[in-house]
Amino acid sequence: MNDIYKNEILNDIKDIEDIYIAGHVNPDGDAVASVFSLALYFETLGKRPHVLLECVPKRFDFMYGGEFFIALDEIDVKTAPDVFFAVDCGDRQRLGKAAEVFDNAKLTYCIDHHRTNVGFADKNVINADASSASEIVFELLKGFGYEPEKNIKIATDIYSGIVFDTGGFRHNCTGRRTHEIAGMLVEGGVDTSFIQSKVLFEHTLPQARLFGKALANMQHKDGVTYTTLTLDEMSECGCTSQDLDGIVDFILNLDVSECAVLVTQRSENSAKASVRSKKFPIADIVVSLGGGGHALAAGVTLDGSAAEVCDRIVSLITDGLKNG
Ligand code: 5GP
Ligand code: MN
To answer: 29 in ligand 1 pocket by Cβ < 6 Å?
Structure first.
């Protein structure tokens, strides 16, 4: 992968100063880390990176590269970049409002690790075997000559993204190469315990209250553990949709769970489902509903109340478990 794209990317951006980079809506730890690390590297080449993200969730504000961040609400959708990198996005829609800027770009790249990605950019660096977009960014930068000890900010971001998407090197997307890359980043000096605490374990008081609510609403049926949260429930706890980390993973880890579903209301008539599985591949079901993701971790937003969306998905999964 490195060799094919090493020369190509560097050649493509040779005469370009302003580089646009965007991650997916509802940015998670891998999305923030991968776009910021790429931006920090382009800055070392004398470029001006612009990072388009819906937001930088507070818990990821320890990551480096925040100076490049532009909120989607503030972007001029008429911007026509010379080059645009879509990172950690399984499809164009995942860019949200940044998709319009993507459409205007002269040259588009997609850097991603979702198996459902069909390669929606002009040039696509997709590796579904990589643990995270951050891991692919590392491979690219290494191909460009990057060495972790020479830039600890980039190393910290990449390590954070990998820790996030692998759940601390636990998910099945974690490969030998993931550990090798982590080893190189550790050798480069990243503070592993600080990053692990920040990315995986630190929660706010409102989040803990929301966790309680999600567990109180939890139900279980035929191997599927599921729960819902309404907008009112989230706001009663002082939370938003940025505060949901850890909930669906916790209910998946229950001994009775083969699959887990968390559905959260997003507007009057739409709800977002986060689906997780220990073994049974749920991506096909989620993709058939218009969503995407990975075999064991996928998501989709559907019309309806949280309860309706949850019923619909849970019955598809219980049917799938019975037939599979
Ligand atoms: P989560 O449930 O944590 O939001 O997402 C789990 C995985 O599914 C992530 O890899 C995420 O990128 C993907 N995903 C979540 N929601 C959607 C969606 O609406 N569309 C697509 N294509 N992928 C999604
Ligand atoms: Mn990712």
So the answer is: no
